Amino acid sequence: MYYSQEIIEEVMQKNDIVDVISQRVRLKKNGSNHMGLCPFHNEKSPSFSVSRTKQMYHCFGCGVGGNVYTFVMEYENYSFVEALKLLADRVGVTLPEAEYTPEQKRQLNTKQQLLEINKKAAIFYYSQLFGPSGANALGYLKGRQLSEEVIKRFGLGYSDISGKNLYKYLRNEGYSDEILKISGLFTFDEKKGAYDKFWNRVMFPIMDVNSKVIGFGGRVMSDAKPKYLNSPETILFDKSRNLFGMNIARTSRSKNIIICEGYMDVISLHQAGFNNAVASLGTALTGLQAALIKRYTEDVILCYDSDEAGTKAAMRAIPILKEAGLTTRVIDLRPYKDPDEFIKELGREEFEKRLDNARTSFNFEMEIIEKNYDLQDPESKTKFINDMAKKMLEFGQEVERNVYAQAVAQKYGIAIKDFQGLVNHYGAIMMSGGKNSIDNIETNSVKHNKKKEKVSTEDAVKKSQRLLLTWMVDDTSLMHKLKEFITPKDFKDVIYNKAAHMLFEQYETEGKVFPASIINAFELKEEQTMVAALFNTDLESELRVMLGLDTDDEIMNSLQKERAINQIVKRIKTYSIEYDLRTCGDIMMIQECYKNKAKLEKMHISL
User: Which residues, at least 6 apart from 134, have a Cβ–Cβ distance to it below 8 Å?
Assistant: First the structure.
């Protein structure tokens, strides 16, 4: 269903965000905002801020943020339309009924139809599990010590051996072959006709973070291959972007997320009370899955199988998780193969101990690398120490590098001075770009450090842009003073640029700004959270750091604020000019860049 922007704005403006959120979260007024414990992650000190002025919320702990729509969608697991209807009913707004042409209706309803098909398929499989044909499958699950409660929670089911019943059922429900062909649930053959892709399998519904069924996994009940079969990728199902169990784990309020290999591992851990367990979907962990995890936690514990394949999977996952900014530890399950087996043998309390004693990802990697060397042999140990010294260069921060260097030196009986000298030696080779070093270590490390340096500059600029956007929302008079110095095109990031453009446009046309409505222009949750953060930077604290004010008691005067705004604008404008010089090929534009650069030297904004 399509609703006009006017209706969406009307419903949002009539639903005060403080009133809506306070019905679900206990809020206490704190200055101009209201504070409470974040409902989206586990915390003891309130960091969840709700602004009546901006009609937005933002958590300074986990980073989540948005407007009244995104809050209802996230808190209630609602789609946008469901949130709109709830909020419209709350304030007595009647939503119009829209009429569509058959083609428009087909396009708009394809995704919704697929969600309905998957939901009905899940219910069908569940009913089959508890029917006569599902006796063996149910016996298998109970033999794996799963309770009926956890079977129901995960919606487990059974696809019977006939290979035709789901197709017949959905056809009787009125779905055409055209839509069933793209559902991923059936195989269509010219000779055999249509038949179920899953048959004689225990079925695991795969849900997105909003608990919508987007695909299935099936475990065969015979010796047939493959043992596990997943839905193919569809409009709904992209296995690189989703995680099994994340719909439950994200609301567990746990301080971390446990990543397992398989469905049964996740279900066994949930049954034991570890509701923060998830699993990748029959493939190696991806960057998109790591980014999804980052939305809900900063801390990950890898709980892969203890065999060689599980170890290799962990070694592949660690750099991906690091790249996403996640702190990673690795649990030791030995002598048991997987968490399902461990829980059955030793129980919850022993698993809790293993979690508490999980190794840092570095210590885990170090132990794995060590296995390739004979440390009793001086030559082999020397090679190992050299490799560890090179590995130290992966740490971008000197403090972190020194801490781990000290730990390595202590563990392997090396004088810290000698090991640190070795690390510095390889660091010097790396920085000089030497090509003839003993192991030619330069390539990856130099690229890594150059990338870090570039990212550091971009992060500093983005931080300044967030400060400026928040400041302009808090004090709209600033927008009039800045319009001759800064424009939306100076915000080079796509998301920042779009948000800035809409903010400037609001001010030009309305004389005021509505930051909460800007969020509605972004579809992805990650984008909405990012936009919310743009307008909810902790301005006071950040400006104090910039100006070197140590205590909250010291009030910023107008001259200090003026110095701060000039620093912020100059940083943004300088980066914008340099970016244009690097990327444009038009001679007139290049000349304009140099003119702007000269103007920047003389620029001063007076408050």
Answer: 128, 157, 158, 160
